[in-house]
Each structure stands twice: as structure tokens, then as C-alpha cells.
Amino acid sequence: MYSEAFKRQVVGELERGKHVSIETARRAYGIGGATTVIKWIGKYGREDLLPKRVRIETLKERNELAEARKRIRTLEAAVADAHIDYCLEKGFLQVACDRLGEDLDSFKKKHAITLSDMRKQRGGR
Fold first, then answer.
1. Do 81 and 117 belong together in one domain?
2. 41 and 79 assigned to the same domain
3. Among 84, 78, 86, which residue's Cα sits nearest to residue 115?
4. Which pLDDT score is estimated for 124?
5. Domain boundary among 32, 49, 66
6. Rounded CA gap, 119 and 85, in Å?
7. Domain span holding position 101
8. Within its chain, how far is the Cα of 95 from the centroid?
9. Is residue 63, in this structure, part of any structural domain at all?
10. pLDDT digits (tens, 9 = 90+) for 36-87
11. Does a structural domain hold residue 26?
């Protein structure tokens, strides 16, 4: 466990440029955890000391990423709709079995039917 004074000292030294990187400060003091100093930097509100990552994208890559995100949203909506349909169909089948006085599992075994079979028969949603 490191004292508050020590943590502030390491962050201060990084701020003043005594260490060229977080890694060199960590090694200079034998600090074990790879993210320990990073956490201290965040704790003391000095995110400006964290290394920056710059990503360069071409316009084509940017457009592809936007299209992929749009496609993901569309697919997520389709999966949600399919799940709602599944739940409704399962519920309706349960109500029908209750009205017939039959157990759902017994009904499905007796008629060798599954909900996916029902969907296929109806046109495969």
C-alpha cells in the first residue's frame, strides 16, 4: 500500500517531466501494478498526463464503420422483434394448451411440433 504523499509525489514528478513516461516512473520506484500509476493520475484529476492514442481513418473506413454500426442497430432490432414474436407464440400455445387441458410439453411431444417448426410452416420469419 502506498501513502497519499507518495502517490502525489509520483504524479507530481510526471507532471514536471522528471519521468518521460508512466512506465519509467513505475520502474523507477518499483511499483508493481501496470495500471497503478494510471489510477493515481485519474484520482488526482491529471488525465492530461495519460498517453494519447490517435487513430487515423480514411473516408472509406469511416463510411464502412458507420454502415456497420447502422447494420448492427438494424440486426439488434430484428432480434428483438423475433424474440417478441417467439414469446407471443409461446404464450399463445400455452393458452391453447391450457384451454385444451393439456400440458405444453406433452402436446409438443404428441404432435412433434416445436415453435421453430411453426414458424417454418407460417413462412419462416
1. yes
2. no
3. 86
4. 54
5. 49
6. 10
7. 74-122
8. 36
9. no
10. 999 999 999 888 888 888 888 899 999 999 999 999 999 999 999 999 999 9
11. yes
Which pTM value belongs to this model? 0.43
Amino acid at 52: K
Can you say how many angstroms the Cα of residue 31 is from the centroid of all Cα atoms in its chain? 31
Place of cell 411453426: 118
Place of cell 439488434: 76
Question: Which amino acid appears at position 87 of this protein?
Answer: C
Rounded CA separation 95/87 (Å): 12
**Which amino acid type is present at position 32?**
G
- The answer to whether the CB of 35 falls within 8 A of the CB of 65 is no
Q: Which residue has the cell 498526463?
A: 49
**Number of domains comprising the chain:** 2
User: Is position 69 within any domain?
Assistant: no
Rounded Cα distance, 115 and 80, in Å = 17
- Determine, yes or no, domain membership for 62: no
